[in-house]
Amino acid sequence: MKTLYTTKVTAQGGRNGHVQSENGVLNLEVRMPKALGGGNDDFANPEMLFAAGYSACFDSALNRVISLSKTQTGETTVTAQISIGQIENGGFGLAAELDVNIPGVSIEEAQALTEKAHQICPYSNATRNNMEVKFSVTNN
C-alpha cells in the first residue's frame, strides 16, 4: 500500500475512558453503552465512532463513483448502523448495515453505483470477509 495519509488517536481507559487525536480535533469521553452494561447512552462509544467513519468514507467513495460515471444525482446520504455481538469462539464481532440513498436515478442504477463504491471504499476493503455488511439502497 502506498500511504497517502496517517492519523493517530490515543485511547486511555478503554470503553470507559477518553480518546484524543494527535491534533486535538477529536477529544471525547467514551463510555460503555447501556445495552452493554453502561449507565446510559449519553456518550460516544467505539461502535458510534466506527459508524461515523464508515458512513462518511462510503459516501465519499459513492460520490467518486458517481462523478467518474458522469451520472447526475441529487445529494447522496449514507447511514451506517454498526452492531456488536458475540461470535462462535466466545469473542466479539461487528456487523454493518448501510442505508444508501441516491436520489435522481433508477433503483437499479443506485444499486450498481453502491456496489462500485463498495469495491473502492477503504472501510469496505478493510472489513470485506471479516464482518457482515448489508446494504439497503433507495433512490428518493
Highlighted features:
three-stranded antiparallel sheet; OHR; globular; 140 residues; KH_dom-like_a/b; 29% strand; 2 domains; N-terminal domain of TfIIb; GMP Synthetase, Chain A, domain 3; OsmC/Ohr_fam; alpha+beta; Organic hydroperoxide resistance protein
Characterise this structure.
The protein has 140 residues and is α+β, with helices and mostly antiparallel strands. It folds into 2 domains: 1-44, N-terminal domain of TfIIb, CATH 2.20.25; 46-138, K homology (KH) domain (GMP Synthetase, Chain A, domain 3, 2-Layer Sandwich). It has helices at 46-68, 107-120, 122-127, and strands at residues 9-12, 17-21, 27-30, 77-86, 92-101, 132-138. Strands 1-2-3 form a 3-stranded antiparallel β-sheet, with no helix packed on it. Strand 1 and strand 2 (17-21) form a beta hairpin. Helix 1 crosses helix 2. It is globular and about 45 Å long. The N and C termini lie far apart (37 Å).
CATH homology-level superfamily of the largest domain: K homology (KH) domain
* Relative strand content: 25-35%
Order of helices and strands: EEEHEEHHE
Integer tally of domains: 2
Q: Unreliable runs, pLDDT <50, ≥5 residues?
A: none
Overall shape: it is globular
Going by CATH, the architecture of the largest domain would be 2-Layer Sandwich
- Measured between the Cα atoms of the first and last residue, the distance is 37 Å
Please list the strands of the largest sheet in the order they lie side by side: 1-2-3
The CATH C-level name of the largest domain is Alpha Beta
Work out the number of β strands: 6
Quote the CATH topology of the largest domain: GMP Synthetase, Chain A, domain 3
Number of separate helices = 3
Which class do the helix and strand fractions yield?
Answer: alpha+beta
Could you tell me the radius of gyration in angstroms? 17 Å
Summarize model confidence as the mean pLDDT: 97
Largest pleated sheet:
3 strands, antiparallel
Give the % helix. 25-40%
InterPro entries: KH_dom-like_a/b, OHR, OsmC/Ohr_fam, OsmC/Ohrsf
Organism: Chryseobacterium angstadtii
Family: Belongs to the OsmC/Ohr family.
Pfam family, one: OsmC
